[in-house]
Amino acid sequence: MTFLYRTLLxxxxxxTSLSLAAGGGWPQPKGKGFLKLSEWWLISDQxxxxxxxxxxxxxxxxxxxxxxxxxxxxxxxxxxxxxxxxSRTYQNNQISxxxxxxxxxxxxxNGIGDTDISLKFGLSNPGSPIAVAxxxxxxxxxxxxxxxxxxxxxxxxxEFNQMILLDAGTSWQVxxxxxxxxxxTGYNNKTKGFSDEFRIGGEIGANLLNKRLWLIGRxxxxxxxxxxxxxxxxxxxxxxxxxxxxxxxxxxxxxxNIGDNWGVSAGYATAxxxxxxxxxxxxxxxxxxxx
Length: 291
What we know:
Blueprint: H1 2-20, E1 33-48, E2 54-72, E3 77-91, E4 94-95, E5 102-104, E6 107-111, E7 115-122, E8 131-140, E9 161-174, E10 177-189, E11 196-208, E12 213-225, E13 246-257, E14 262-275, E15 277-278, E16 282-290
Antiparallel strand pairs: 1-2, 1-15, 1-16, 2-3, 3-6, 3-7, 4-5, 7-8, 8-9, 9-10, 10-11, 11-12, 12-13, 13-14, 14-16
């Protein structure tokens, strides 16, 4: 069970980071920025197995309260940080179906989570019809990776990773409706014997209600490159987060501008297929400002 919990929570934090990524191929202009305070959560009692089937698990909940910020250091270079300053992971009691006695006591762990810091470099000229940028992200293992009495409740994965992404985005107008699309591909170099990851994805958005409401759809795919990992122990024998997880996730977000600089957002994402991943949706809600 320890392996299962570690694996599911590892993927939960992966999905969190993906769902909060923003900006695409467009760096922030110098001196301008974006700040978002959000809550992300997932509660699940089933998961995809290592062969893609569905199995039940003890109900597990993950909650992240985070700050996400972008700031234009120059017109081509943007600094980015994702900081989950309060994370909570819990599991319910495991109860015998025969005797109704508690087999495993439920518990929870609170603290800060793993943090990402990034630099985005604009490669295309301002005003180009296709905006191209590359982003270097460093994943800092600040979260507890062995919480709980059995060491199976985590707020991070305990490994330092480096990811490079290439974004390409464009915008256009359909009648009076502004729209945009962005696609990315990337490589995530992981340490401590974890397999590296290849990532692709994209999003498309439409600006409605007099340009106050953004409706956004997203697709994210993570494929583990098993030949790059050095940890060859069978899954049940490991005491760290699982190697070789993969998934295809779809999601949507509504972002409403209350004023010129403030707004609120709500989002949904779920894995439509995967290997060792929650088979339940995640949700997010937040408030943001542009400055």
